[in-house]
Amino acid sequence: MKGAKSVFRSDHIRWRVHAESPLARAKNGDARADVQGVASFYTMYWKKPMGKTHLAICTNISCMLCGAYQLYNYIKQTYHIGNGDVTPDGLLSLEEAECLGSCGTAPAMQVNNYEYVENLTLDKLKAFLKERGL
Q: Are residues 62 and 27 in the same domain?
């Protein structure tokens, strides 16, 4: 199973290879169940195309107590998308994250699996979205 994780790293196409695809199995010879196991365990391996800007908002206890659901619901209501959805234009997708490991700077949001935005407020979120042209 040494190469299964690398199969899914496909940032140039903005999503990860589906675990059941022939490409995923053929690339490293792993069994379908092994590839599916890796893909389903790690949340950063998307199973479908996501938006150009993918937002994962942590709603675990620290973030929740600091207003994460207000931020998450703002995006849901403003862009008419839910957890795992993509806007019709493909520019934005949303995910409710279990924990981003940023409890001391809650609430936190992860952008495209790389960038963290911490100490997030509604004003800071609106400015971020405007800056991204969303």
A: no
**Is 46 contained in some domain?**
no
**Contact at 8 Å (CB) between 73 and 124?**
no
Residue 59 in tokens: 């709603």
Q: What is the pLDDT of residues 62-107, one digit of tens each?
A: 999 999 999 999 999 999 999 999 999 999 999 999 899 999 999 9
Give the span between the Cα atoms of 111 and 128, in whole angstroms. Answer: 11
Domain that holds residue 99: 53-131
Query: Which two structure tokens, joined as six digits, stand for 78?
Result: 């403003």
0.85 exceeded by the pTM? no
